[in-house]
Amino acid sequence: MSGVGVIVFPTAIGHCGLAWAGEPGGAVVGAQLPESGAEGTRTRLRTRFPGATEHEHTEPGGTGALVRVPDRILGAIEAVTASLAGEDVDLSTIPLDLRSVPPFHARVYDLARTIPRGTTTTYGELARRLGEPGAAQAVGQALGANPFAPIVPCHRILAAGGKPGGFSASGGVATKERILAAEGVHLTPPTLF
Q1: Do residues 18 and 76 make contact, with C-beta atoms less than 8 angstroms apart?
Q2: 26-58: per-residue pLDDT in tens?
Q3: Which residues form the Methylated-DNA-[protein]-cysteine S-methyltransferase DNA binding domain (predicted)?
Q4: Fold adopted by 5-93
Q5: Which residues are designated catalytic?
Q6: 102 cis-preceded (ω within 30 degrees of 0)
Q7: Which of 17, 55, 116, 173 could serve as 32's disulfide partner, Cβ 3.0–4.6 Å?
C-alpha cells in the first residue's frame, strides 16, 4: 500500500503503532497492539505495510519527525495512549479506512465500535445484533483478524458465559484483561495477593 505512514509510540501497556493513508485527512488503515518492545511493534508494522514511510514519535513540543504526521493521527495517538492509561476516551471517532477488510468484518468492526467503554458483550450477542444470530463463530473470526485494535475494541467481546475467549494480540488473554482493567472491567475478581 503506497502513501502509507506508520508510527510506533509508547503507551501504558507497551509500544503500540498506527498506520494511516490519505493525507491530509489521515484515515487509519491499521493499528498495532504491543509486540515484544518497540522494535517488535515496528517490525510487525513493516510486515503489514511494506514500503510505508516510518515516522518517529517525539513528545509534544519536542523537535523531530512529527511535523509530517497528520493532525488526525496525532489526535488518534493521544486518544489511544490516554485510553490505555485508563482515561475515559471515546476511540469511535477516529476515522478508519475499512476498504481493505471483507464486508462482513467491516460490519462487525462498525458494531463493535458502538460498545461503550467499561462494558462487554459476547460474540453471540454481537452476531444477534448484526441480524445473524448463528454467526457467533464468524464474528469471533472477524475480531481475531481485527487490524484496528484497540480502536475497534475487540477486547470488549467475550465468549459465552462471560469467559474471556481468545485474543490474538501478543500476550493473548492477559493483554485483553489488562486493556479491560484500564476500562474498569475485571474478568477475574481482584484478590488481596
Answers
A1: yes
A2: 799 999 999 988 999 999 999 999 999 888 766
A3: 103-185
A4: Double Stranded RNA Binding Domain (3.30.160)
A5: 154
A6: no
A7: 17
